[in-house]
Design brief:
CATH class of the largest domain in chain B: Mainly Alpha
Number of helices of chain A: 8
CATH superfamily of the largest domain in chain B: MetI-like
CATH class of the largest domain in chain A: Alpha Beta
Order of helices and strands of chain A: EEEHEEEHHHEHEHEEHHEEEEEEEEEE
Structural class of chain A: alpha+beta
Number of helices of chain B: 12
Strand order of the largest sheet of chain A: 6-7-8-3-9-10
Radius of gyration of chain B: 23 Å
Structural class of chain B: mainly alpha
Largest sheet of chain A: 6 strands, mixed
Order of helices and strands of chain B: HHHHHHHHHHHH
Distance between the termini of chain B: 35 Å
Number of domains of chain A: 2
CATH topology of the largest domain in chain B: MetI-like fold
Oligomer: heterodimer
CATH architecture of the largest domain in chain A: 3-Layer(aba) Sandwich
Largest sheet of chain B: none
Strand content of chain A: 25-35%
Shape of chain A: elongated
Largest interface: A-B, 24 and 17 residues
Helix content of chain A: 10-25%
Shape of chain B: globular
Strand content of chain B: under 5%
Chain lengths: 351, 275
């Protein structure tokens, strides 16, 4: 794999605000990379820096091997899909699609032909003479995609492109974008605050917080081996449960402050205080051999799964079987020892 | 019932105020058609007994109105051109950049609006005299009045630019356009309505400009219609029907333009360029 985009020690200040702190990232050619994190973590700033819409304070970047630090956006040969789609309201769909071609001196006939091809692949053929205001949300989204792919750019940048769509359309567009990426063999960078989008679409997920990269890796690696409590809590839905406790004298279990204990698959320094992390979907309801007990608060059944929330509201579990549990019941829970995560209570780093 | 009462009450107030303001307009048209004795009749007549439309061509020719009106058009056109070209650029910068200097700039622009023309005219006159601008009196008036018209235009057009989403410009940049190119091909077309409306309003108020023209332009052949009108008001002048006919000729074209464009002007001012 060769690197398509390379970011080296990128720093970005807005006045006193340090938006990106020494970010380095290599994006392989043909890969689909998701930048994910809570709002204000710097993911959009990083994307806009790649596009050249933000000038970086220090650091370097290359796109397709060429030095791009300080190069204006129009010379970077990248395409971007904006959250609001940013379709030009005074141009028809066709004019929107061909805008970049016309700027690059492509002849009118060639541009029209290209627009027709792109419209066919994105399902816009009937809509070429319409104006953006006459389109539905999903159609506008497709025009924005078409406008990006028509130029065959070095990289696609997506800035939360699905957040204005309703839930069903979002799931559908997720697949379409991924399919398009595969068909074009393109390099894509995708910004989202929705970890499900990141997990399902990307080959490589970059979790950011407060201007730094907390962890990057393949989606399932992040799920299985989060390096700290933040990533553990951010990846996975519902979020991981955190239980304070202390390593037992034997070293192979955690005595929970709230009562009960969790088995461990390895030995840890006895007596150490820890935060144990267990994912809601890894907990099983057990009878006698339960590791700890919980009072049930809210029960939500979706048919395929049941979501249980504890009475105190800060513990969740997911059951794939139907359950007879009701609010107020006391339930015993158990877990596979290999699925217990441990974090340092001070630093949050995984142990 | 109070819910319907309030709007009706406000509507009545609005109509009453409009009537106070529009009555002189009606009176102008009516008086222009009356004979000398009827004008001073008591009680007054609300419709002339013997309408005399001949007063219009007669006043038109006797007061050399074509010259005055042409000067008005030249001066108002000059004011509008300078205001639109400079004001549009200024408004764009004030809309797109945010920092202390922009705030100071905006404050200074608004200060221009606060200073009344009658206060500014004397220092301007002295200044123009020293640099020899008084030899080109219409140019001098255009410069002075354009500075006066600028704040109103800049503030309104700035609001129009702010309604054009920044992402559109960024999309154009990524698509391969330059800052300047994006401004002309994306931002300007979308702000066009707002700019046009403000330009029309600027022209209409410049068409009635009086203070600077009266003070700076001495030669009657260069004076605009507003100053020409004041030429009637000599110590012995009581030629009210001619004055009213002159006023009617002067005001009617502007009035017509406003009535025709009224809907677009209101929507352009309130809604911005797009939703």
């Amino acid at each position: 794999m060769t690197a398509q985009i390379e970011l080296i020690d990128i720093d970005k200040h807005y006045g006193n605000f340090h938006a990106l702190k020494n970010v380095s990232l290599t994006i392989d050619k043909g890969s689909f990379v998701a930048l994910v994190g809570p709002s204000g973590c710097g993911k959009s700033t990083l994307l806009r820096s790649i596009a050249g819409l933000e000038t970086i304070t220090s650091g370097r970047m290359t796109i397709a091997g060429k030095e791009m630090t300080g190069v204006p956006p129009r010379h970077r040969d990248i395409a971007m899909v904006f959250q609001s789609y940013a379709l030009y309201p005074h141009m028809t769909v066709e004019e929107n699609l061909t805008y970049s071609l016309r700027l690059h001196g492509v002849s009118k006939a060639d541009a029209r032909k290209k627009a027709a091809e792109v419209a066919a692949t994105t399902g816009l053929s009937e809509l070429l003479s319409r104006y953006p205001r006459q389109l539905s949300g999903g159609q506008r989204q497709r025009v924005a995609m078409g406008r990006a792919i028509i130029r065959n750019p070095k990289a696609f940048l997506f800035d939360e492109p699905l957040s204005n769509l309703d839930a069903a359309l979002r799931v559908q567009m997720r697949k379409e974008i991924r399919a398009l990426h595969d068909r074009l063999g393109a390099t894509s960078v995708y910004v989202t605050h929705d970890q499900i989008e990141a997990m399902t679409m990307a080959d490589w997920v970059v979790v950011m917080r407060a201007g730094i990269i907390e962890q990057q890796g393949r989606p399932l690696d992040l799920y299985d081996k989060p390096v700290n409590r933040f990533v553990a809590g951010f990846i996975g839905s519902p979020a991981m449960n955190f239980l304070p406790g202390r390593i037992a004298d034997s070293g192979n279990s955690v005595v929970l402050d709230g009562g009960g204990s969790l088995p461990l698959a390895r030995n840890v320094e006895p007596g150490r205080t820890v935060i144990a992390g267990v994912r809601p979907e890894h907990l099983q309801v057990r009878g006698d051999d339960a590791n700890f007990h919980l009072e049930v608060g809210v029960v939500e059944s979706t048919g395929s799964a049941t979501y249980l929330t504890s009475r105190d509201g800060n513990f969740q579990l997911v059951q794939s079987e139907r359950t007879q549990l009701a609010s107020g019941d006391r339930v015993g829970l158990g877990i596979d020892p290999t699925r217990v995560h441990l974090f340092d209570p001070e630093t949050g780093i995984a142990l | 019932m109070t819910r319907t009462y309030t709007p009706w009450f406000l509507l009545v107030v609005a109509l009453a105020l409009a009537a106070v303001y529009l009555f002189p307009l009606y009176w102008m048209y009516v008086t222009s058609l009356k004979t000398g004795s009827e004008i001073f009749a008591n009680p007054p007549t609300f419709w002339p007994r013997e309408p005399n439309p001949d007063i219009y061509p007669e006043t038109w020719a006797r007061r050399t109105m074509p010259v005055f009106l042409l000067n008005s058009v030249i001066i108002a056109g000059g004011i509008t051109a300078i205001t639109v070209i400079l004001g549009t650029g200024c408004a764009y910068v004030l809309a797109r950049y945010r920092n202390v200097w922009i705030d100071i700039g905006l404050f200074c622009v608004l200060m221009l609006q606060v200073l009344p023309a009658s206060v500014m005219v004397t220092p301007l006159f002295v200044g123009f005299n020293q640099i020899g601008l008084l030899n080109y009196p219409r140019t001098a008036v255009v410069l002075a009045a354009a500075a006066k018209a600028m704040p109103f235009f800049v503030v309104l057009v700035r609001a129009t630019f702010m309604s054009v989403p920044r992402e559109l410009e960024e999309a154009a940049l990524v698509d391969g356009n330059s800052r300047v190119g994006a401004f002309f091909s994306i931002v300007l077309p979308l702000a066009r309505n707002g700019i046009l409306v403000c330009a029309i309003l600027t022209f209409m108020s410049a068409f009635g400009e009086y203070i600077y023209s009266k003070s700076i332009i001495q030669s009657p052949s260069l004076q605009p219609a507003s100053v020409g009108l004041s030429g009637f008001l000599g110590p012995n002048s009581t030629d009210w029907s001619s004055i009213m006919a002159y006023s009617a000729i002067y005001v009617t074209p502007i009035l017509l333009v406003f009535v025709i464009l009224q809907r677009r002007i209101v929507s352009g001012l309130t809604s911005g360029a797009l939703k």
